[in-house]
């Protein structure tokens, strides 16, 4: 039993080796096709890498343009910020002037009221004096 197993095992081992050798031969015979495939693969890789390089260069140029536009926008923002700050300072000074003008106008309005009151009182005093004088001259006995 053992010797028959050994012989069948050797036969199976030998058939496997022959099958492996046949496969290796077939692969070696197809090796010429592999070389051609490698060459075409290298060419396609070179084309792919050059197209990728061109794409990256285009992306780099676009990024440079975006950076330039961002710098211009930043400069514009800085300029407009300065203008706004200057206008704000001017408005603050104008606000002080306007408040001073408001105080002066309210003061002159009060003075106008007091002037009207004083004129009315002076006119009343004048009329009272005129009436007194007329009364004394026309009616001395009263």
UniProtKB/TrEMBL annotation:
Domain named Sec20 C-terminal: residues: 48-138
Protein localization: Endoplasmic reticulum membrane
Primary subcellular site in the record, as a coarse category: endoplasmic reticulum
InterPro entries linked to this entry: Sec20 (IPR005606), Sec20_C (IPR056173)
Membrane-crossing residue ranges in chain numbering: 117-134
Bilayer disposition of the protein: Single-pass type IV membrane protein
KW Transferase (keyword) present: no
Any one biological process term the GO annotation gives: retrograde vesicle-mediated transport, Golgi to endoplasmic reticulum
Pfam families, sorted: Sec20
Coiled-coil annotated spans: none
Similarity comment text for this entry: Belongs to the SEC20 family.
Protein's name in the database: BCL2 interacting protein 1
Lineage: Eukaryota, Metazoa, Chordata, Craniata, Vertebrata
Gene of this entry: BNIP1
């Amino acid at each position: 039993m053992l010797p028959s197993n050994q012989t069948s095992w050797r036969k199976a081992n030998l058939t496997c080796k022959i099958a492996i050798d046949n496969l290796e031969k077939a692969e070696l015979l197809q090796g010429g096709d592999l070389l051609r495939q490698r060459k075409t693969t290298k060419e396609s890789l070179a084309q792919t890498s050059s197209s990728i390089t061109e794409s990256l260069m285009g992306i780099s140029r676009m990024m440079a343009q975006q950076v330039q536009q961002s710098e211009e926008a930043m400069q514009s923002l800085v300029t407009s910020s300065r203008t706004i700050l200057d206008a704000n300072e001017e408005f603050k000074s104008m606000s002080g002037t306007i408040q001073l003008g408001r105080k002066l106008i309210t003061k002159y309005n009060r003075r106008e009221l007091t002037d009207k009151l004083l004129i009315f009182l002076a006119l009343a005093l004048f009329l009272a004096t005129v009436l007194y004088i007329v009364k004394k001259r026309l009616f001395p006995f009263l």
